[in-house]
Amino acid sequence: MGFELDLLTILFLFFVGSFAGFVDAIAGGGGIITLPALMAVGIPPHIALATNKLQSSFGSLTATVNYAHKGLLHPKELLYGVFFTFFGASSGAYVVQYFSADFLEDLIIFMLIILFIYTAVSPKLGHEAVEAKMKKKAFYLFLPYSLGSMMDFSVLVQEFPGPLR
């Protein structure tokens, strides 16, 4: 599964990554820019997902440190979320290895299209403060695992048991 990137491709990815970081800092969602770019230059989907996950981890860490310095975090409450996010992302990263590159590429494109459509029809998404619909513990137990696993597509294991090669 070897591939080589020439200097022009590396420069392209550098500028795409910089732009995605800028977008991510303002509104989030930089991975929606970087993942297709990584795949467009011929990086296999498994490696593109791992690269995207790694770069987004640095963005999340930076945001977390900034919020912590401003006193906006409650560390005891976050422990649940950190644990279940780690568990979800780890299980998703393990499971994604069982998918063929072709299937995974099609799935990623499909998921990005669905995400784009959802975002396009929800123009006020995140603009208004709304009251929480879940208790904090339920939120920290459910959402981080779900997001962590969905980001690595492990949710699909329920429908496709075993390797899809």
Topology:
Elements: H1 7-26, H2 31-40, H3 45-69, H4 75-95, H5 101-120, H6 136-151
Would you kindly provide a written description of the structure presented here, covering whatever features stand out?
This protein is mostly helical. It has two domains: 56 residues, no CATH class; 92 residues, no CATH class. The chain has six helices and no strands. Helix 1 runs antiparallel to helix 2, helix 2 runs antiparallel to helix 3 and helix 4 packs parallel to helix 6. The chain is globular and about 45 Å long. The protein starts with 6 loop residues before the first helix and ends in a 14-residue tail after the last helix. The C terminus is likely disordered.
Query: Measured on Cα atoms, how large is the radius of gyration?
Result: 17 Å
Distance between the termini: 15 Å
Order of helices and strands: HHHHHH
Mean pLDDT: 76
Oligomer: single chain
User: Which word captures the global form?
Assistant: globular
Structure summary, number of beta strands: 0
Q: How many discrete structural domains?
A: 2
| Strand percent estimate | under 5%
Structure annotation, total helices: 6
Estimate percent helicity: 55-70%
